[in-house]
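Researcher: Here's the sequence for the chain we discussed earlier.
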Amino acid sequence: MLNERELRKQAMLDANINRVGEGLRVIEDWARFYLRDSSLMESVRELRHGLWGLVKEEYPQIIKGRSTGKDLLADALEGGRSSEEDIPRASFNRVKEGLRVLEESGKIISPEAGMNFKRMRFRIYDIEKDFYEKFTD
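Model: Thanks. This is the structure I predict for it:
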């Protein structure tokens, strides 16, 4: 049985894993349907699958900390979107922020975990650049 501190840590990891995964899915779908760019779509898809590959063994333990009823932001309103461009931009920001949290937390779990999340974060920077070069064409 996990103590309250461990459950809180697990909840933070769970929230950020989901944040990153959901953000990547939105970006993947924009590359797939809006840009119709299979290469970019595959890059995002590989990153999304890589995320789940990194956490799959720990995930059953991580979700034990999930408690949406105790989440201080569960009922918070998110910022609005004033244009289509705001949708992928918000998703890229969500992914980068979530990966940074996972990177910092991962350093405590293992140096390798932290480095893997850092690599993913730098990969999304490149994908974002490619995305916006194609999005503005």
